[in-house]
Amino acid sequence: MTISKANENGILTITVEGRLGTSTAPLFQDALIPEFDEIKEIILDFSKLTYISSAGLRVLIIGHKKAKSKNAAMSITNVSQEVMEIFNMTGFSEVLTIIPRA
Questions:
Q1: Within 13 Å of residue 23, how many CA atoms lie on the same side as its CB?
Q2: What domain range is 35 assigned to?
Q3: Which end of the chain, N or C, is more open, meaning fewer C-beta atoms within 10 Å of its C-beta?
Q4: CA 26, CA 9: separation in Å to the nearest integer?
């Protein structure tokens, strides 16, 4: 898994590439959660995310809760059909802010 960050006008985009599973979820958590101390809007670009496990979903919920506690926004964009199916099956699509693919 590769994580890259780009800050433009105070909006941080975090791009996740590869598989977000049990072994990589801690890295993703370490890259995401501390950002809410400084940034008020984070966009997660999942255009290159090929897989997400329950460990990755857990980090998204932690991020969602952290964003709410900091009065910040977290949204997810460019979600593949495969990952969107997981979001739909788990009910995450009802909780998280997901921007539809263009």
A1: 4
A2: 2-99
A3: C
A4: 27
- Kindly report the pTM of this predicted structure: 0.95
- The DSSP annotation for 22-59 comes to TTTHHHHHHHHGGGGGT-SEEEEEEEEEEEE-HHHHHH
CATH number at 23 reads 3.30.750.24
Mean pLDDT, the chain cut into blocks of 10 residues (102 residues total): 96 98 98 96 97 98 98 97 96 95 66
Cβ–Cβ < 8 Å for 22, 30: no
- 102: Cα separation from own chain's centroid: 18
Q: Are residues 82 and 62 in contact, defined by beta-carbon separation less than 8 angstroms?
A: no
Q: Look at the chain and report how many structural domains it folds into.
A: 1
Helices 25-32, 54-69: crossing angle, 10 deg rounding? 10
Give Cα separations from 19 to 27, 48, 49, 69 (angstroms): 12, 9, 6, 28
